[in-house]
Records
---
Amino acid sequence: MTELKTQKNDATVKDFLNAIDHDRKREDSFSVLDIMREVTGKEPAMWGSSIVGFGSYRYQYASGREGEWFLTGFSPRKQNLTLYIMAGFDAYDAMLEKLGKYKTGKSCLYINKLEDVDVQVLRELIHHSVEHMRSSSL
């Protein structure tokens, strides 16, 4: 079986974030770093070249393929700040209604800037997702 390209590595999170050219995105990234560190109780690690992840969990597909992934994380992409809410969003409609301006993918929350969202609601969303992932992993 093939391995995922995005693997946890020893690159320095602080150096990665300090290299962000856009001031607001860099500041927002450090704020999200603090929130996720507090919520997870874990130190950040680089996953691949552009994702900051916290903690990890094991998963197994019906095919038998197993892997390891982060509990939550984020990536300061060119277009937006992408937060990885690994539990998805199906159970969080009430929180999302209060969150503010965002878009979602399957497990991705896209925000343009942190001031567009209610940070307390964001913290709650991350917390619930992390707890869900901790309780449902192998």
---
Amino acid sequence: MTRLILSILLMLLVTGCATAKVKDYEKFNAAKPRSILIVPVVNRSVEVTAPDYFLSTITIPLAEKGYYVFPVNLVKRMLEDDGLSDSGLVHNASVEKLSNLFGADAVLYVTINQWDAQYLVLSTQVNVDLTYVIKDGKTGDTLWEHNQKMVYSPQQNSGGHPLAQLISAVVNAAIAKAAPNYVPLASQANNQAFTYPGPGIPPGPYAQQ
């Protein structure tokens, strides 16, 4: 029995190691981007305000990694003036055109796959699901890509009267559903996505040593 359990654990360990993907940084390191252009995000969620809220969270983690990041609001305005007011059009535009317009070394594309709050009567789960892709501004090649998912569920206090706990859980769930706080969750997703070593990108030329 013991041997059987050990064999199963070994198989699970080997399977886990086999399925874990190690990112290839060869193209990224060869490109050596110094500046990153963040274009308007494609929003596939039902929350129309998601792109604006998300853009307020993305600049800091990249800047802290040591890259020059173009002001996202200025970028959005300039693209609109250039006839690219729709994020879908921006993502389908030539990477080289976008990078030349701003003098950027690389372009970051983000897609919001999920940005919602699921009401479960006694709890509310706030979810974000984001896909990041960085492309070389000169060649259009993909230098790095990653998918990041985050889920937040408010924790309930385990002490107190059961009825009071139940009422508190219902109230907290209703509040979270009515006004879900996505910004901290999106910030956390960004920080984890760009963590290196890990799934993220290597430090840029302006990173503090």
---
Amino acid sequence: MKTVSRIAACLAAAGLLAGCSSIPPGAERGPHGTMAYYVSVEASPPGAKIEANGEYVVETPLNLKIFGNPNGTFHDFGSYFYVIRAYPLTTNQFVQTRWFSTGHNYTPKDKIPQRIYFDMNQNSPSNPPYVVYHEYGPPYYPYWDPWWYGPPWYYGPWYYGPRVRVFVGPHHRHW
């Protein structure tokens, strides 16, 4: 009798969990349980060439189809970022790039925007810092993380002692 009730409880829990991850009715389904979102992409002079994740799409204005999670965030298809780049029409304009975090390896996910606008006359910084903006908390700098680089203090010089030397410090692990 106990096994029958356990099986019934497991089936009920599985049915409840399967119902939570469904796609809304009428939405276009995509690979890996994703759904299609249409993003309007525009540029200051119409006709700028658009590239999404390294593939040429078409000139602006356009509606770009992005497959994302049902909660409205970018889906992790194996890369850390979803990159949309606009190329200029004339020589006095600049390449514009938008980076969106996909949540790869438990990094924060970005929401899929409804509209992306590129101002081709705006000068882009020569070396822009990478910052992930999300709806909770301050901006996140994933490449300046103390867990990644180690603590910001000095460990001192090498120890010249016995034949086996161990130095523990950021980016230097000699055994």
---
Amino acid sequence: MAGEKTERPTPRRLEDARRRGQVARSMDLNGAVILLAGLLALTVMGPTIVGGMEGAMRDIFARMGEPQAALSARGLEQLALATLRTVALAVAPVAGICLLASVIANLGQVGVKPTPGALRPQPRRLDPIQGAKNVFGPRMLFEGGKSLAKVAVVGVIVALAVIPKLTELAATVGASPALVSSELWSMVLSLLQRAALAYLAIAAIDFAYQKWHHRKQLRMSVQDVRDEYRSQNLPAEVKAAQRRRMMQQARARMMAAVPEADVVVTNPTHFAVALSYDGTKPAPVVVAKGQDLVALHIRRIAEEHGVPVVENRPLARTLHATVELGQMIPEELYQAVAQVLAYVYRVAGKARRRIVVR
């Protein structure tokens, strides 16, 4: 079918989607990268963190051994500050590394180019019908399958890591707490590392799916591609013809407003400016203006429809140079235009209108 979306999105379409905040991104990839970064930080800084917390705990227990000092207001304050300081020193490095990993993961997926369009509210997202399609559509089926796959993979990894270690854990019965804790930490760390690597593999598959789904949503029909190509690769003569057509249409609209004007101020031969004042605005409005042949055409239409033509060279030049079509005259020209309109109303016998001169 002619309107079927079968073509890959063009770079321009991808860029337009990016401006609207539509990019391919996997939240699972962010989570996997953060998890790996956190594990790496714990592996490298774990002994230091444990040593610091051990010293802090010894200090806390030593203070608690002195009830009178520990239970006083000053003692409780010092105890709380020491505990918070210990927790902060232990958490801050790991949290900082995880934060940096999150930023890097996001930038790696979407780049560094900001997309303000993503911050704009989109009422269509509140559509309940579209929301139901998203909930029960193929995308949610994929998300559900992905969640089940993550649970299954983690379960298999836990089983493969824990079952062979059961004999070794049984052998630690009666061992010192330090040996048991060291053995448990080694096993847990190994388990987490394997789970993180498996999670990263799932996240990579999810990122590939997100990119495929994103490009599928932006597919174009053959006609869309042709229209975009034509808009970008129009010959110079076609663009010039379009500009001429737009200028002709604008000039036709301008000339159609001349018969409704109150006066046409002329140079007399080089410039012509048509003014209209209906009393609804504070000052007259320029409804038509032109130079040379256009000015001659404006004067001819004005004479055919009985619109007064007044020669005022300085005023005509100033109006043509400073006032655009559809704009009111500036305040510094109120007096001069008011005099022209008063003269027209007096000579032509038109109904006198109130001119606001400030």
